[in-house]
TrEMBL record:
GO terms for molecular function: UDPsulfoquinovose synthase activity. The lineage of its organism: Bacteria, Pseudomonadati, Pseudomonadota, Alphaproteobacteria, Rhodobacterales. Residues 3-290 form the NAD-dependent epimerase/dehydratase domain. Keywords: Hydrolase. Its EC number is 3.13.1.1. It comes from the Bacteria. Belongs to the NAD(P)-dependent epimerase/dehydratase family. InterPro entries: Epimerase_deHydtase, NAD(P)-bd_dom_sf. Pathway: Bacterial outer membrane biogenesis; LPS O-antigen biosynthesis. Signal peptide: none annotated. It is an enzyme of class 3 (hydrolase). This is UDP-sulfoquinovose synthase.
Amino acid sequence: MKIAVLGGDGFVGWPTSLHLSDQGHEVHILDNLSRRWIDTELGVQSLTPMDSIQERTRIWHQETGRRIRFHLLDLAKDYERLKQWLLEIRPDAVIHFAEQRAAPYSMKTDRHKVYTVDNNVSATHNLLSALVETEIDAHLIHLGTMGVYGYSTVGAAIPEGYLPVGIETIGGETVEQEILYPTRPGSIYHMTKSLDQILFQFYAQNDGLRITDLHQGIVWGTHTEQTRRHVQLVNRFDYDGDYGTVLNRFLIQAAIGYPLTVHGTGGQTRAFIHIQDSVRCIELALNDGPKRGDRVKIFNQMTETHRVRDLANLVSELTGAKVAWLPNPRKEAAENELVVKNDQFLALGLDPITLRAGLLEEVVDVAKKYAYRVDRSRIPCVSAWTREIAQRVERDP
Ligand code: USQ
């Protein structure tokens, strides 16, 4: 297949591009390199030393003989060039990762809120509109988030995108219907992913676009089979307070002797998936797309759920790290349950990689190897969800 990977220079986009290229697909990356600019804005860098995208693709060709083409383009801003590029490539599938993906970054200031909404919503809408306009019948796969559901506290399992409801008609009978699971995003970033869902629903129904939306949990780990092949193919690893995700942050903190930064009581339960499973799920979804006229296909892309404090305790037992209980800069439930259905990927043959001490140690090893690159002052989470929370965190850091 000819596959366009939008946002193919990012944390999940890069290993996905390598994985699909390795399987013999013709991969074209489109990226505006905004993630690298945001590193510059924040004054941080990936824990792992990352080469330029051109250098990465050159090494991939040198190692495998396979080519991945890179095109520099801003999906949210350059609509006309996007159409031209699609007409040139004529992809069979488009994988859309090209969005600002950090909740704390999206809540940092009003400017960051505006940027995240403009960028994410325009990127998705430009892509949908361009597919209709160019009449390219590609399967669109979008990397969404479990966060659109809002981590219910009621204890019922979250279904894969659709909720069956009984609606009482005027005549008094009950009619069964499936609706999009009501969204309850907890950040501006998660809200943009909720808006994406509506855009997808409209374009599938109005124009017959074939769309799969993957509601992914928190990714952990660094390497995939392909990124291991050469030191310069290494994936990025974020540890800072805006982009670092919780388990990877705990692992690097343990490696450098920094107390594990648990927010509040650490009672938040979240869904998790290893980076290797994440790229495998995208491959599975690619081969099982909806037909024209079908509703949007939604998968829950996660393999297990964990409570944040349990993760901290696990990492602490493994490494001897201390745990710091910090005021929570986010507005979120202090404690929540989370049960999630992921039957569709299991039925397609996913054999989940679950959190095991051996695997955690492996990430600690990566962290130790590059520990000299860590700027400890960038570890605290400083983006607060509201002014009131910001004042509270300042009073009691
Ligand atoms: N947390 C801590 N300590 C930390 C960092 C985070 O206790 O040092 C807590 C947070 O308060 C939160 C939980 O850990 O309750 C998860 O935070 P996170 O930063 O790991 O994840 P999140 O902000 O939800 O976002 C990440 C990705 C996002 C993806 C999402 C999937 O950045 O792109 O969509 O995970 S999910 O969480 O399932 O919505």
